[in-house]
Design brief:
There is one protein chain. The chain is an alpha+beta fold and 595 residues long. It is 45% helix and 15% strand. Strands 4-6-5-11-10 form a five-stranded mixed barrel. Helix 1 packs parallel to helix 11 and helix 12 runs antiparallel to helix 13. The chain is elongated, with a radius of gyration of 37 Å.
Length: 595
């Protein structure tokens, strides 16, 4: 008969429980040490426990779209605002609708509250518009010039608000005469001729826009020939960009295809005003944006990558703008009606661009965050900002912890009464699970922005029952083996495979329920689902790497191996029957004398 393979561990053998237990304890010590080293020795608390800021936003109809406030647009706005706030590292921010036109944003205390508040209601409507003319930002007296343009509107010294800015490869815009700029205004406002590079279906600019074209304006392009042109020029002349109210009303209600006036700051921080043509590219064409430090210039910039469709548009636009004369070879990057950059173009550019100017690290990253997550489909007005105190949440947390402590005490009493000595193993396992859960929650706060709220606390309390259930399954399997007449050590190893399958199936169902709940819900309920899923995974880890090795080691002790009445494994109490053994019968003597 072949000799058994000594190198292969037999089914039901104890393996190396000491090594497994040592690895688990090392991992637990490492996590605890990491928690203290990070300085975050307590979990981050959500707004219901720690307090914070609650912002109410009211939606306003988009110009030209009277029915824009609907469920689809409101849900889209909620999703975008939530991604923006979480993109700043503010987790557990609650964003939800209230009624048909309000959105409530709850930001926990201790996070970037001010930064998040600045971004939640920012519409982030981004457009690339061709520059028709530019002038100093203050108001000017409307004095007609030879070209029919107010002499105060375009200034030769205000050619490019960002002459040191660029979009890919670009050159500073040289100075231009007021006559040429005045012609740009009137030509750009014509309905049939526009310097916008994408306006011509043939892809070519008109002769009037090409270098060397006649400087004499056509009578049909004079301001008096078109009341709309005259009105826009007057608005441009009277615009005072140093006045915030005037900047807000400058292009309020304008559609993307309208010619508008707008304000922006140049590289020196001075206000300048523009007349801009219809939008040729929108923020939806931006695929990704990042705030980065330009190592060559030592300034913060925002880089943008366009989508495939946006790349084609951008190449077409820059190719045509590069053939124009200043200032019409510039395109303005307009965010929520304000010009944030107006670089000039000297050649066709590819699928990326950059916005440069007086950015700080935070402002560059804020703008990139807004552009990356898209524009809101609606405009919002901040209705109220309320500071939320943690007093009520603290009381609820205290009540929840008391309920959890009562539940844990009842579980311990039941384990001691029914399992006696085995209850010690269960209590140690619950303690190990509690330490792992606490340290991981504390580390997840700065790691992924996890914040503990009341539903998450409920999930942790529910997990006590899930973890205790795993121990009970294993203990009952061991008792079944003892009832069949086996001693403790083989009973522990033979019971493990069957208990393991049951525990894995049970925990898989719990984890699946938590995952589905996390995916289909929003807000605080996700905290419950996340905590439930986390503790379910930790239950598997604790049972496999702590409870089983400890049970194997204790089965070698006299107290448990001898079946002590207080061990919880007493064969007599369990009703175990000794195995049947064959014995030789001895006949009883019939005669008393023979006995």
């Amino acid at each position: 008969m072949a000799a058994p393979n000594k190198g292969r561990r037999q089914a039901g053998s104890p393996g190396r429980p000491g090594r497994t237990l040592a690895l688990f304890l090392i991992a637990m010590v490492a996590l605890t040490g990491g928690m203290f080293w990070s300085g975050h020795v307590t979990p981050r608390l959500g707004i219901d426990l720690a307090g914070g800021t609650s912002i109410t936003l009211q939606a306003k109809n988009t110009p030209g779209k009277p029915n824009a406030i609907n469920k689809t647009n409101m849900d889209t706005a909620v999703s975008i605002i939530e991604r923006r706030v979480n993109g700043l590292g503010v987790s557990e921010a609650e964003v939800q609708t209230q009624g048909s036109s309000n959105i409530i944003v709850n930001i926990p205390k201790g996070t970037n509250e001010k930064q998040a508040r600045d971004q939640v209601g920012t519409t982030a409507q981004l457009y690339f518009r061709p520059v028709l003319t530019v002038a100093a930002g203050g108001p000017a007296a409307p004095q007609p010039s030879a070209s029919g343009t107010p002499s105060g509107s375009p200034s030769s010294s205000a050619g490019n608000p960002s002459s040191d800015e660029s979009a890919g490869n670009s050159d500073p815009s040289p100075s231009s005469s007021s006559t040429a700029q005045g012609r740009a205004v009137t030509d750009g406002l014509k309905k049939d001729v526009t310097p916008s590079p994408g306006a011509s279906s043939s892809g070519a600019s008109s002769d009037k826009d090409k270098p060397g074209a006649s400087d004499k304006p056509s009578p049909s392009t004079t301001p008096s020939a078109d009341p709309a042109t005259a009105a826009l020029e007057k608005k441009f002349t009277d615009l005072d960009c140093t006045n915030q109210a005037a900047r807000t009303k400058a292009n309020q209600g304008a559609a993307p295809k309208d010619t508008i006036v707008a304000c922006g700051k140049n590289s020196g921080g001075e206000w300048e005003k523009y007349i801009l043509g219809p939008a040729e590219l929108e923020g939806t064409d931006v695929d990704d944006a990042k705030g980065v430090l330009d190592p060559q210039r030592g300034i913060w910039i925002v880089t943008m990558d366009f989508s495939s469709g946006g790349t084609k548009k951008f190449q077409s636009i820059t190719g045509k703008l590069s053939q124009q004369q200043p200032p019409m070879n510039q395109f303005a990057i307009v965010l929520d009606g304000n010009v944030v950059s107006a670089p000039s173009v000297s050649q066709t550019l590819g699928g990326s661009a950059e916005i440069s100017g007086s950015f700080t690290q935070q402002s560059a990253q804020d703008l990139a965050n807004i552009l990356s997550y898209g524009a809101l489909p609606l405009s919002f007005q901040e209705q109220s900002v309320t500071t939320v105190t943690a007093a009520l949440g603290g009381e609820q947390l205290e009540a929840g912890l008391i309920a959890g402590a009562i539940g844990l005490a009842l579980v311990v009493i039941y384990l001691v009464a029914y399992y006696r000595g085995l209850a010690g193993i269960a209590i140690l396992s619950l303690g190990a699970s509690g330490v792992m859960t606490y340290t991981i929650m504390s580390l997840l706060g700065p790691g992924i922005g996890f914040a503990l709220n009341l539903p998450a606390v409920c999930g942790a309390i529910v997990a006590i029952g899930i973890t205790a259930d795993s121990f009970i399954v294993y203990f009952e399997r061991i008792r079944d083996e003892i009832r069949e007449g086996r001693t403790l050590r083989p009973a522990v190893e033979r019971a493990w495979p069957r208990a393991r399958r049951t525990i894995l199936v049970s925990d898989f169902v719990s984890f699946l329920a938590a995952a589905v709940l996390f995916l289909v819900t929003v807000g605080k309920v996700q905290g419950f689902a996340f905590t439930l899923g986390l503790t379910t995974l930790l239950d598997v880890v604790v049972v496999f790497f702590f409870t089983k090795p400890v049970m194997t080691l204790l089965a070698r002790t006299t107290f448990f191996a001898s079946g002590h009445p207080w061990s919880g494994l007493d064969p007599k109490r369990l009703g175990a029957k000794p195995p049947l053994r064959r014995s030789r019968r001895v006949s009883a003597p019939t005669d008393p004398k023979e006995a």
